[in-house]
Amino acid sequence: MRQLILVFIVLTMTCCNRKQCSVDLTAKSDFEHQLNIVRSFQKGKATYVEDYRYALFYLSFTTGLFTKADYSSTIGYETRSDFKKDMKAWQDWYKKNKCEFNQNYIDSVLREHKNSMSTHRH
Fold it and tell me: How far apart are CA 84 and CA 92, in angstroms?
């Protein structure tokens, strides 16, 4: 009987220690879509410049990890190494933050950036 109780306690503790979360599939899909736009551009596939710039903006501001790519008058990464570092950093960030990453988070971050940009213009 003691062994049964011990097994029950261990199983209960193991189950409770796991971090369970609900991943927002729409937010995940949007994040992956933006990563794919950057990847496609780097592979030389036809990509609208506006889409590429938005993808870099989106990834940089939602993660707080700013890109090494240039997206002003010239666009793209100077080196393949910079591209790989950005992609790895963004993917690692998502893995760590996927439980909190949802549409409300995205909207608040982008709204905050938009508000800060409008106050700097005045």
Answer: 12
- Separation between Cα atoms, residue 122 and residue 34, nearest integer Å: 31
Does residue 68 contact residue 51 with C-beta atoms inside 8 Å? no
d(CA 77, CA 80): 7
Determine the Cα–Cα distance for residues 110 and 108; give it in Å rounded to an integer. 6
d(CA 59, CA 78): 18
Q: For the chain, percent helix, then strand, then coil, each to nearest 5?
A: 70, 5, 25
pTM above 0.85, yes or no: no
68-91 pLDDT, tens digit per residue, is 998 776 788 999 999 999 999 999
Contact 69, 75 (CB under 8 A): yes
Q: Kindly state the tokens that stand for 21.
A: 């979360």
